[in-house]
Amino acid sequence: MAGARSSLGRDARLVGVIGSPVAHSLSPLLHETAFGAMDLPETWRSFAFEVTPGQAAAALEDMRRSELTGLSVTMPHKAAVAGLVDESSAVARRLGAVNCVINRDGDLLGVNTDGEGFIASLARGAGFDPAGRRCLVVGAGGAARAVVLALAEAGADEVVVVNRTPGRALEVAELAGAVGSVVGSADVEGALARTVGAADLVVNATPIGMTGVSGPTTGGEQWIVSPDHLQAGQVAADLVYSPRPTRWLAAAEAAGARTLDGLGMLVHQAAAQVSLWTGLDAPVAAMWEAGEVALPAGG
Length: 299
Hints:
Blueprint: H1 2-8, E1 13-19, H2 27-37, E2 44-50, H3 56-66, E3 70-73, H4 78-82, E4 87-88, H5 90-95, E5 100-104, E6 107-111, H6 114-126, E7 134-138, H7 142-153, E8 158-162, H8 166-173, E9 180-182, H9 191-198, E10 201-204, E11 235-238, H10 247-254, E12 258-260, H11 263-278, H12 284-294
Parallel strand pairs: 1-2, 1-3, 4-6, 7-8, 7-10, 8-9, 10-11, 11-12
Antiparallel strand pairs: 3-5, 5-6
């Protein structure tokens, strides 16, 4: 960060993304696409900063010293940053995770835009409103937590969580309050299949199928929820955005479901961050187009 500041001077408005690994991140591209479409000065720049595990505190101090306007936060630092910022939004506190930091004259505010990004992507990419609908979320990691909370706050009638570890599923479902529940990952007497079949929205919030993630693939991909259980009239969303589409989404589409990949959530959570940093409406269409070019479907 200090190097970026030194090379661009004190007048530059710098933002970036921290993570490990982070060189592949599309965030700088999305940020700078937004800045260009908003006619902001060329001094608004975004960078990817490799920050190894355990070094989040040092990165935030560097942010202060280098006077960065904002940071996007990705794996594996979201939980650590939540415990290091000076103040957190209510959503970030409930999730115990921060994906965006705003520098206000040296005081760092942590927020989490993942959930709102997912809800916005559902509307734009699938024409789906969770209010009054039955939703099922597969997984119990940070992404699943953000999605479950966001669906509940968007008025979902039911948010069911399925995960191979029942205790973690229950912990995530509790974020949805009275509308949250769990179903076992083992299809005991068809319970999982019936729950999936009754859902209006099924979300894969696991990394299964992601480019570069090792693990079983079909024929033997061990999906927690088989796309064979999906059908016409449902929306199937996968938070993975590379490859496009994932094999799970391709199979879900073949089963008749409407599908939505993870690019929309990536774009919308980044757009929310840009708005927080600049105080202006982010150009979602331009950012989405840049993401489509960088990650073409079928690529």
